[in-house]
Amino acid sequence: MTGGARGEQVRQRVGRRVRRGAYLLPSLFTMGNMILGFYAVIVGYRDHDFPKAALLIFAAAILDSLDGRMARLVGTESDFGKEYDSLADVVTFGVAPALLTYLWGLQDFHRDAWMICVFYMVCCATRLARFNVQTKVVDARWFVGLPTPAAAGTICSLLFFSPSGDLWVWMQVLVATALLVVGALMVSTFRYTSFKKVDLRKRWSFRALVPIVAVVLVVYFLREAAFLTLAVLYTLSGPVGALVSRVRHSGGSPTPPTPEPVP
Question: Which residue of 1, 34, 80, 122 has the fewest C-beta atoms within 10 A of its own C-beta?
Answer without folding.
Answer: 1
